[in-house]
Amino acid sequence: MKSFDLHVRVEITNQRYTIIELTGFLDAHTVNAFENRIEEIVSSGQRQIVIDLKGLNYISSAGIGALMALTQRLRKESGNMVLLQPNEKVFKILDLLGFTKIFNVALKEEDVENYFQAV
Amino acid sequence: MKAVGRMDSKIENEEDILMEIQCSVRGEILPIMRNFVASVAQKMGFSRDEISKIEMSVDEACSNVLRHAYFINGASGQTPKHQDPQKGHMKICVRAASDHLQITICDKGLGIKGKPYKGVENIDEFLNKCHGLGTYIIHKFMDKVVIEYPEGKGTTVSMIKYLHSQT
Predict the structure, then answer these.
(1) Strand order of the sheet with strand B144-148?
(2) Mean pLDDT across the stretch A94-114?
(3) C-beta of residue A51 within 8 angstroms of C-beta of residue A23
(4) Is B136 left (phi over 0), alpha (psi -120 to 50) or beta?
(5) Which of A44, A51, B54, B58 is most exposed, with the fewest beta carbons within 10 Å of its own?
(6) Angstroms from B63 CA to nearest CA on chain A
(7) CB A78 within 8 A of CB A47
């Protein structure tokens, strides 16, 4: 059932932050793959991370929990995480639950720079 | 947190549409169940936002079955050592009534020992505990939720969303 997978693509666009592009679903089934990939990235020394959510169609509590754990870890290690351009559905869920006030959410790509400049 | 009471699932209107799916407890079924309930909700006339809430609530209930129902070494699921994938089945029953959608998810797993697990009360509590968000979401997004968990006889989660709900 490949069509139900989560696809994770990592791109280092500049020296300040790493972009992790998520496509598909981040739910209880796919969250382990995401967490494993994140562990590799953070263990390699990356502390400034952008999670590109443009291609993410669904997020569950498991996915939100994984993003929260990453945020808390990075903040403890003087890092930062920004969620980039969640689609309307994912943004609405995050907003209804109050997570748009907890996560750094950039609705435009230009806004990402502001978050890292401010750090 | 909404009051948890008994849900009367016996009274059926002749015009209600009933659907039932029995499936293996596997992660791959989560998007299938989400799509299924979203399709029914869309046909009933729920708004896009309401459909998202229903879809997520069903996903959270199914995810709980996936993580907790069939662990051999206890139902808490905190540190499971073994899981028996052959044993796990769950059933999803959907009733589309004129003014509401009722979804019941049941398994034949280990049930819940002790007091009912209600999840966290708010997001601040989740930020401290880092678990319990799924059950919180079900209660927040649905109009009525009943969780029954006779020990050793599985767990049944019934939830209702009314058309034109204010939740």
Answers:
(1) B17-24, B89-96, B100-107, B156-162, B144-148
(2) 94
(3) no
(4) alpha
(5) A44
(6) 6
(7) yes
B34 touches chain A (CB under 8 A): yes
Residue bearing tokens 């007091």: B115
Q: Which residues in chain B have their CB less than 8 angstroms from residue A69's CB?
A: 130
Stretch (H or E) spanning A20 = strand A18-26
> Domain containing A54: what range?
2-118
What's the confidence (pLDDT) of residue B101? 97
Give the total number of structural domains in chain A.
1
pLDDT for res B116? 64
| All domains of chain B in start order, with CATH | 17-162 (3.30.565.10)
Interface contact A97, partner B, CB < 8 A: yes
Across A83-89, average pLDDT: 97
ipTM field: 0.89
> Mean pLDDT by 10-residue block, N- to C-terminus, for chain B (167 residues)?
48 81 89 96 96 97 85 46 61 95 90 70 87 92 91 87 82
What tokens appear for B58 in the block? Answer: 């069903």
Chain B within 8 Å of A29 (Cβ-Cβ)? yes
pLDDT at B39: 96
Q: What is the rounded CA–CA span in Å between residue B19 and residue B21? A: 7
A28 → closest Cβ in B27, B52, B55? B27
Interface with chain B: mutation pick from A6, A56, A57, A60, highest number of B CBs within 10 Å: A60
Give the minimum alpha-carbon distance from A59 to chain B in angstroms, rounded to a whole number. Answer: 8
Q: Give contacts of B52 with chain A, Cβ < 8 Å.
A: 89, 92-93
